[in-house]
Amino acid sequence: MKIKLITIGKTDEAYLKEGINKYVSRLKHYVDFETKELPDVKMGKKLNINLQKEVEGKEILKLIKKSDFVVLLDEKGKEFNSVGFSQFIQKRMNTGMDLIFVIGGPFGFSTEVYAQSNMRIALSQMTFSHQMVRLFFIEQIYRSFTILKGEKYHHL
Predict the structure, then answer these.
(1) Strand pairing of 32-38 and 99-103?
(2) pLDDT tens across 76-95, in order?
(3) Residue 22 — φ and ψ, nearest 5°?
């Protein structure tokens, strides 16, 4: 099984890049993990939210296969605690299907991306910047594997 995180836009802040790289490196000990950053869609002064979501959606869908289990990070998604999320990861690993997580652009996802997804999850009811969400979410994936392995990282 492989886990892939697809994001829209670059991570600009050095401290976030450093944190992301730290957890991506740690994750490699547990699972085949990959991140894929898609470029921001530049709409200029003619901002059209639906068009932006559509363009982003087409790029996202190019990276998804029909056999993937696709999870969108969405404010209206299911919330987990860390142990529950680790149990979700374990169930997905048991299927052998690749697990694809997607963090969309600032306006969410196109209807085509929603249609292709299998599930939506929310990190919190709070709103975080898309760049920070990447770090938080990758850390949670790492935490899940330490929970599954019974390691001391997560204090139960």
Answers:
(1) unpaired
(2) 999 999 999 999 999 999 99
(3) -60, -50
Task: Provide long-range contacts, Cβ within 8 A and 24+ apart, for 56-61.
Answer: 56/8, 56/104, 56/105, 56/109, 56/110, 56/113, 57/109, 57/110, 57/111, 57/112, 57/113, 58/110, 58/112, 60/6, 60/8, 60/102, 60/104, 60/109, 60/113, 61/112, 61/113, 61/116
Number of domains in the chain: 1
Could you read off the pLDDT of 95-113 as tens digits, one per residue?
A: 999 999 999 988 899 999 9
pLDDT band at 42 (very low <50, low <70, confident <90, very high): confident
Determine the Cα angle at 78 with ends 139 and 27, to 5°: 20
> Which tokens in the block code for residue 43?
């709409």
Give per-residue burial for 121-134: e unless 16+ CB within 10 Å, then b: bebeeeeeebbebb
CATH of the domain at 119: 3.40.1280.10
When computed from its CA atoms, the radius of gyration of the chain, rounded to whole angstroms, is 15
Range of the domain at 51: 2-64+71-148
Nearest partner of 68 among 24, 29, 142, 119, judged by Cα: 119
